[in-house]
Amino acid sequence: EQSSVPYDIIGEEQLSKLVDVFYSRVSQHPDLAPIFPDDLTETARKQKQFLTQFLGGPPLYTDEHGHPMLRARHLPFAITPIRAEAWLSCMDAAMDDVQLNGELRAFFFERLTQTAHHMVNRPDDEG
Ligand code: HEM
Questions:
Q1: 2 in a structural domain
Q2: What is the pLDDT of residues 18-45, one digit of tens each?
Q3: What Rg do the C-alpha atoms of the chain give, in angstroms?
Q4: 40 lies in some domain
């Protein structure tokens, strides 16, 4: 039997739905909407590529955009602790929406939590 990575368990279809539902929540969140573009099509496309490789799937993001350098790519945006929590709350709700549950969800959410905290680049009062 072939060894499987988290990406193989979640699969392309559920990951894609998760990202779409996530950005529809982001676009309606009062703390997040102001720093995102109005049209999130391209953002969602890149996030699907990134999360595919984040979960051990093929390196789709790196193949097209080079090294992720996520913290550097987020520096132009005011990522405050409040916004990091808002991002995570949208993701938590999106995981509910697509019924991503169990160990995979716990593992994935934990890694996203670490990454979100790492993205923080401004205090709340500079948001
Ligand atoms: C891009 C906000 C956390 C992955 C962006 C953009 C914003 C943003 C405003 C630019 C959107 C655009 O112009 O298309 C935030 C906020 C976060 C956060 C407020 C809260 C902590 C994360 C996390 C990840 C992530 C945890 C990965 C697990 C990405 C990726 C892009 C992106 C892959 C596209 C980068 C590119 O343009 O190539 N984010 N982000 N972000 N974010 Fe985040």
A1: no
A2: 999 999 999 999 999 999 999 999 999 9
A3: 14
A4: yes
Q: What is the ipTM of this complex?
A: 0.98
Ligand 1 atom nearest 117 alpha carbon:
21
Within a domain: 1: no
Task: Choose the residue to mutate in 74, 95, 111, 112 for probing ligand 1, maximizing ligand atoms within 8 Å of C-beta.
Answer: 74
Report whether residue 48 contacts ligand 1, using a CB cutoff of 6 Å: no
Please give the structure tokens belonging to residue 121.
């680049």
Separation between Cα atoms, residue 7 and residue 54, nearest integer Å: 8
Q: What is the CATH number of the domain that holds 71?
A: 1.10.490.10
* Cα dihedral across residues 90, 91, 93, 97: positive or negative: positive
